[in-house]
Amino acid sequence: MKKCLFPLFLLLLGIDARAQQDFFAISGKDTPSINFNDFRVIDGLRGTSGEKIFGADSSSKVFSQSRNTIIAEDKNSYNHSQSLTMAALAYDSSNNSLVYMPMFSSNIYILNPKTKEISLVENTVARVSSCDINSHITRMAAGYDGNIYAMNNAGTQILQISKKGSQYVVNDLGIVKDDVSNGKNSFTAMETGFGGDMVADADNNFYVFAASGNVFKVSVKELKAKFLGKIAGIPDNYSVNGSAVNAKGNVVIASAKGAPLYEVDLENLQAKQLPGGEQLHIYDLASRYFVNNRTASTATLADLEIYPTRVDEHYINVHINNKNVKGNLQLTIFDMSGKNVINHNMSVKSGILDQKVELKSLTNGAYIVSIADESGKVILNKKILVTE
After folding, report:
1. Kind and range of the H or E element at 80?
2. What start and end residues bound the annotated signal peptide (predicted)?
3. Is the CB of residue 285 less than 8 Å from the CB of residue 47?
């Protein structure tokens, strides 16, 4: 029995270690107002704090994209890479970097957690004003399409931050408006819709968690926010300031007021406290995971699965654990025009298969992966997005 348990323990240990490496937070000091302390790793499964990556007092070297040189920043202003007013963070898995914006600034920064190098993207698209709380960027998340998205308090600007070659480009997608069904739970009202954070799903929709605990689903295509409900199971005075998806596919929320982290079920918006119990001051959360997207950590529970569906490492895994699936299988990948771009033969014995399929020949974009059995019957279709 021990021989069986030991490999399983190593597998779970590996999953947990990866989950910790892919979950990040902007941490604050124990003060009544926003006071940036550091970027740090967070255990998104246990709700505990981990390694500190970069802090308010760290030595920094900032490279300006527009000026193509290292610059000296004014530390007495809000427009610098270690500003006290940090409230928007995203994790860009395509280059393993943290993307963030100070709340009173239009500047966009990209931090390499390993080298501690910072790139500044001078953003002339956002209309952030220090005296207008509506304009402050407080929500940010990586979209399933590989771009970074940021939104201000009132939803009057949603920014798309994308990389074209070696340069970052910022686009203003427009104004997010309330769905007619929202009623008194307005996305644009300070009491019900301001602040908080957002996460993305596998269809590139966003779920915005307002500081009030209200949850809205935002369609980027329609630029409309639909009220889903209010989080249950958190203290009445809990201010929701950060949200991110953990390795189990559940949303984790955090507060700037010094409180434990909670895991939220999006189906019923019921929250349960994570076991860590630390009184963390968290201004924002970020991870590499998405709502409704199976990750490598949960794929072993499926009978038939392809993962990841957002591909940034030139391969996918095919996992089968179903005694009714046997013999030779044909895996075919189609581009969105219907053209066959990859064929791959697989053989299943005793209903078990774990195989890696290389995708190095594919350029960035969306594709359909189809698996057919020996009779030609399609047993699985899955959309994937190649981002690197």
Report:
1. none
2. 1-19
3. no
**Burial 9-34, CB ≥16 within 10 A → b, else e:** eeeeeebbeebbebbbbbbbeeeeeb
- The set of residues, in sequence order, having a beta carbon less than 8 Å from that of 168 and lying 6+ positions away, is 65, 108, 110, 119, 121, 161, 162
Coil, helix or strand at residue 42: strand
Domain ranges for the chain, please list them: 23-287, 304-386
Question: In the CATH hierarchy, which fold is given to the domain comprising 304-386?
Answer: Immunoglobulin-like (2.60.40)
* pLDDT at position 293: 63
- Look at residue 8 and tell me whether its pLDDT is greater than 70: no
> What single-letter amino acid sits at 177?
K
User: 304-386: same fold as 23-287?
Assistant: no
**Does the predicted model carry a pTM greater than 0.85?**
no
- Residue 282 and residue 296 in contact, taking contact as beta carbons nearer than 8 Å: no
Question: Hey, what are 231's tokens?
Answer: 């989080």
Structure tokens at 373: 């059995």
Fold of 23-287: Neuraminidase (2.120.10)
Q: What is the pLDDT of residues 120-155, one digit of tens each?
A: 999 999 888 888 999 999 999 999 888 999 999 999
